[in-house]
Amino acid sequence: MLKILTIFGTRPEAIKMAPLIKELQNHPGCFDCRVAVTAQHRQMLDQVLDLFGIVPRHDLNIMQPGQSLFDITRRALAGLEQVLSAEQPDLVLVHGDTTTTFTGALAAFYRRIPVGHVEAGLRTGNKFSPFPEEINRHLTGVLADIHFAPTAAARANLLREGVAEKDIFVTGNTVIDALLATVRREFAFTDPVLSNIDYARQRVLLVTTHRRENLGEPMREIYLALRQVVQDYPDVTVIFPVHKNPAVRQVVREVLGEAPRVHLIEPLDYQPFVNLMQRSYLVLTDSGGLQEEAPALGKPVLVLRDTTERPEAVEAGTVRLVGTVREAVLTETRRLLDDPVHYRRMAEAVNPYGDGQACRRIAAAIAWHFDLAEAPPDEFSPR
Q1: Do the first three CATH levels of 2-173+354-370 and 192-348 match, i.e. the same topology?
Q2: Is the pLDDT of residue 199 over 80?
Q3: Where in this chain does the record put each UDP-N-acetylglucosamine 2-epimerase domain (predicted)?
Q4: Which CATH class is domain 2-173+354-370?
Q5: Predicted pLDDT at 310
Q6: Catalytic residue IDs
């Protein structure tokens, strides 16, 4: 039996790794799957673990107030040294682009343990955008032995960097697996703000911002554009789960605190969040994961960044890069509110990121790599 240790530390990683853990656990004669969390994020991580019923064997609980990237890296690496020494797994699985991802891969490398990188091969080409995620992905890619690329474009990035084709599997993104298992048409919100909105009459703009490179004036520009939108469109309501970073909260309150029909709420758990996204008209975000999730629900996305490591959605037409300049954000939002043909074109574009079978493909790829299966998995291709 193959002992697999999955390592993650943030809410986005947990969301995308949860269905994979469940898939691996469905093959008890083949895989012994164990979970270690750094808790780089604490509360936001715990609610995802509770939702999917995942109990970590190891919890480093490294999060501290005001932690820096130096703090996270140092504490995660030291803690993972002990975990790997105790577990001695046959394979370590990490996900995406967080500091936990990089330190997990580095710790496994130091122990000469093979690394599987889920969501491998995403690139912007700018090492400071997103920061530090772009470099975390690069470094993890150098350390990884098996690369689970969500798309053909991600595979092409890895091939250009010298990764052997036999070590890359195009699987689709596991976030679509998680999303399809969580969205419910009959879902009832417990938050009174969300439960009292008339989604049939109000067009809801779902907004999230948190990127380090957008802190300060870029975020202020975004929020000023949003304030203008609600002034101009009486049928528009903004729902804004505000990131806990004090630097984000200060600017949000200054610009949008008194704006009509703008609801500044606490960050939502994953289940109500994706069900809110399902009922929204449009998503404005600087998040990476929402660029994959929203198109799966038929929701256009305006990306509040100048670069994206997910160009497939831009090419497919489900996502549009608008940056952070007030007039650009305002212009693109108005276009989607005023032009039903343009809106429909974005909403109905094919989602390039997955079909809900990524976890099955990854499990099959692991079995194939370790000579536990007679054939490799089928390759994901958007239909």
Answers
A1: yes
A2: yes
A3: 23-366
A4: alpha beta
A5: 87
A6: 97, 119, 133, 210, 212, 243
